[in-house]
Amino acid sequence: MKECITIEEKKELNLFIPEDLTEYYITGGAVASSPFDIRLILFKDEIEKNNGILKSSNVGMIRTAKTEIIMSPAVARQLRDLLDGELEKYDFD
Question: pTM for this one?
């Protein structure tokens, strides 16, 4: 028998976000999945440098993977719902 949890029974989680948490501005992503998990790789487009020096004649861009997130399908659904809620605040028309 499935147990039903009402809103009143939900417990709030205290979130701790360290001050030194690395932040990335993400410009793209890729996703892959297995029968057990979903993997999300997040990328940032950056100017290509040669030993820290820009090539002035031919400046290019390179897509660098910044992090890989591995999650269950249930967590992926939660994140989708969170993102959908935030996206509703933007006017894309």
Answer: 0.68
77 in a domain, yes or no? yes
Q: Show Cβ contacts of residue 47 under 8 Å, excluding neighbours closer than 6 positions.
A: 54, 59, 60, 61, 62
Return mean pLDDT, the chain.
Answer: 84
- Contact in structure between 42 and 23 (CB atoms under 8 Å): no
Residue 64 covered by a domain = yes
| Number of compact structural domains in the chain | 1
Give the DSSP H/E element, type plus range, for residue 41: strand 38-47
11 within some domain: no
- How far apart CA 52 and CA 59 sit, in angstroms, is 13
